[in-house]
Amino acid sequence: MFYRETGQYKTDYAADMALFPIRQDRIGIALILVVAFIVIPLTVSSFTLSAVMIPILVFALAAIGLNLLTGYTGLISLGTAGFMGVGAYACYKLTTWLPGVNIIVLILASGFAAAAVGVVFGLPSLRIKGFYLTVATLAAQFFLSWCFVRVPWLVNYNVSNAIEVPTRTLFDIPVTGPNATPVTRYLVVLGIVVAMTWIASNIVRGRIGRNWMAVRDMDIAAELIGIRLYRAKLLAFAVSSYYAGVAGALMVFLWLGAAEADSFNINQSFIILFMVIIGGLGSLIGSFFGAAFIWGLPVFLKQMPAMFGIAVASATIEHIQFMVVGALIIMFLIVEPHGLARLWQIGKQKLRMWPFPY
Amino acid sequence: MLEILYKIFIDPFVQMGGAPDLLIQTLWEGLVSGVLYALIALGFVLIFKASGVFNFAQGIMVVFAALTLVGLHAKGVPAFLALALTVVVMLVLAIGVERLMLRPLVNQPDIILFMATFGLTYFLIGLGEIIFGGEPKVMIASELYLPKGALEWKVFGGFVSFQKIDIAAAVIASVMVATLAVFFQKTRIGRALRAVADSHKAALSVGISLEQIWVVVWFAAGIVALATGIMWGARSDVSFALQILALKALPVLILGGFTSIPGAIVGGVIIGVGEKLGEFYWGPLLGSGIESWLAYAIALVFLLFRPQGLFGEKIIERI
Questions:
Q1: Judged by CB atoms within 8 Å, which residues 35-54 of B form the interface with A?
Q2: A77: nearest Cα among A97, A62, A93
Q3: Of A78, A95, A269, B43, which is the most exposed, with the fewest CB atoms less than 10 Å away?
């Protein structure tokens, strides 16, 4: 009844190609942004902000990066956590070298280091395909993890062998380090994630994104219609790793505050791949759904027994949690292999038709 | 600069020539771990060949099988009865996986099935922890009459020691591979398996039951997992850390090719030997722990020349 585009005429090409051509979508996105930027920081407790909201945003950004590679270009990568680590360590080195430069500039710049590493490890994709490539990207993951542990130069030779985040300010408000409040950190992360999502959505609907999708659907055919495969694939690796690198820098500097090499291990890569698949391959909004689902589910399951007043040992809860997460993943794949994004689409379609069934 | 080149290209070989008994020892250890990697890779290959599913859960199946065996024995079941019961458990698991996971997901893209096996991994980790607990356990090696101790062989003025359990592992692995090869080539079900691997549709149209075939391969992979679990468990403890072995088997898999049983064996030996040699002779140069990625680097080098692995079927692409 409310969600209907009838009567909204487009009179020029700009309106036709707008990011949100339907007025209700524009209102909806504006509402979401208002809630995210104003209502949530004012109402939500600072624990929820730093333990739920910030991680979800960071993981959503990493999932968007992986989605550009896996969902749009069809190259399955298990090296995401490694690239996130490159971003984080690069950002740490940059803050050491350039203490005066704005931290946000440094975070965004550290993505380029991740992009460069991503291109190097993307080179095999020119020759290797399918699951062979997936396993090859594991080489990146393990090699980078090893570097994080074994190269003390990356952590400025400090004894703890971990990144210790220095305090940096923006307009005299501390943004990183122990003095930064969760609200500031949340707003900075949100700002960067929203901006980068907007850029990503413009990349994927433009020429580059269409090239990627052609490569995904069949790379030989894409080559025949004049797409340069090596360019498209390496660009996908570069952009994807850039997103992962920025997500990694955000994760360490604005969420965890300190990080060891273990924060970027293989499990992290798997979790991000889960987020992409559960959220929906080839869907940016799906990356947000996936991140919220995979990060939120354990938090929710932990609260469950307490809600029903059942006392269970915390170790048992963790094990049950594993079983439930595993079973839910299988169930989700069976019920809706195209992910949460498809459910969102179906919901929107139903809303358009309402009150009629079709 | 020259010194570094010397350290990389000459010094290790000088060391090898200087102490041939150490070299033989290293080669032997590489061979044994290679055979054990190959056993895990074999589980992957069986399932990939017959259903096109890249089964990430093989690692946890190894742990689960070993835990079931040890757990049953701890409850007072005699060793060989426990072994038989574990086989039954693996059969039940295979039927459950086929009914609840594969059948509803038939005809989905590969990556969806791959993800589903991840879900299975998580599920089995949780289940195993709840039933058996997370602490490491000792494999019932002597109850299963697995040999203990070591043979020593005096050679080149030194001596090389062979653990008897390693020899047993190599023998069991070879027997297993030979049996599987015969099974695939000669029996009725084996032929049906190869037909399914070639084309699901064509196999269905000549009356082969996909469901039955899937149960058979998952069961076979379960048996392989049990054997792997016993062997690895006898060498170290039975714990959830063993599932990391699945990640060790992946480079073996891409090196040998996803669809080739001999490939899994040859790949396993190349990776095992390469890893041990690299760690022992070149490791000190780079800092320890390089075996975590060395296997992948070796596999990558081979892949650049043969993108489908050493023994994989040639990939033919049509528009």
A1: 54
A2: A62
A3: A95
